[in-house]
Amino acid sequence: MASTTTSGLTRRRGGGGGPDGDSSASNGMGGRSSSSNNIKDSQPETSYESSENGHKIAFDPRDISESAERSKQPKLTLMEEVLLLGLKDKQGYLSFWNDNISYALRGCIVLELAFRGRISMQNDAARRRLPLADRTIEVIDDTLTGEVLLDEALKMMKSSEKMSVSSWIDLMSGETWNLMKIGYQLKQVRERLAKGLVDKGILRTEKRNFLLFDMATHPVADGGAKEEIRRRVRTVLTQRTVVINGSQFLPEALEFRYLRTIALVCAAYAANVLENALSTLGHEARERAFTQTEELLIEYSQWPFPGKKATAATGNVGENLPGVIAEEVNKAKPKELQLEVVAACLSVFTRLDSIL
Known about the structure:
By secondary structure, the protein is mainly α. The protein is 43% helix and 8% strand.
């Protein structure tokens, strides 16, 4: 099932998800409420405006700010895209044999917060003595995103002591023996992401009987969304010149479009669901795509990004990517500490098998 590459990465096959903290009851989230409640939104909870007939209309300013935030961002978060890749289209659930997806989804939360400019690496010159994953991150903008999981994680990061990328992913995954920090675990992540996708019209909810019990499943309702993600992944992994066209899922004006797509590919690989995007390829093309993924993961788990392909094992696939990524980075020089967090998350993904 697994073969080890010369880079030290372990190639994984198969998709799906095994039981973990995601299956906990929804009322088991009280451990985080005390820390989250310490953060007060800067805007008032209710404001009023006058209508044409002189009556006052109540509204929450946070709803307006969250709507404005959503209009600038892709329709789906990285977590939702990875979950969607792993989901069985008609059955509406993940494979039961995947132990990696839960941890990878928490890593995607940190990635998404970095891409949205909410967190960055702490600006301390001494950090360079540490491996990327062990460098401390901090909240630089606590404005809510409108995405429940992102906002929950953001509030925890804002109210707690500063910790490293790997520490946050571990804690949110429940990978800790410290009972004082078990409250940082984000529970029911898969189910909450699936319900978010139902709200966005991508999935629908059904009841399915599994021998002795019924379970809510979430089959795909909008096949175009999942196919767009698959197409984007295949483009990065099979084309000599990678061109990613704009769509509602990745707007043309979105910052870091190509780097975000590379992060998606690497996260899907770490979550053990990448093969689901490559099922239409022949055997040899699929093997080359996995090799290209491993090279991307090696290259972009370093900071600064090397700007060249790790090896020539995949020929000319993605020949223009180093230049395109360099252009995105150069346009966002003030945001390099955010991109350092992205590289740190990918470095955690390279050693996921040894963590779990």
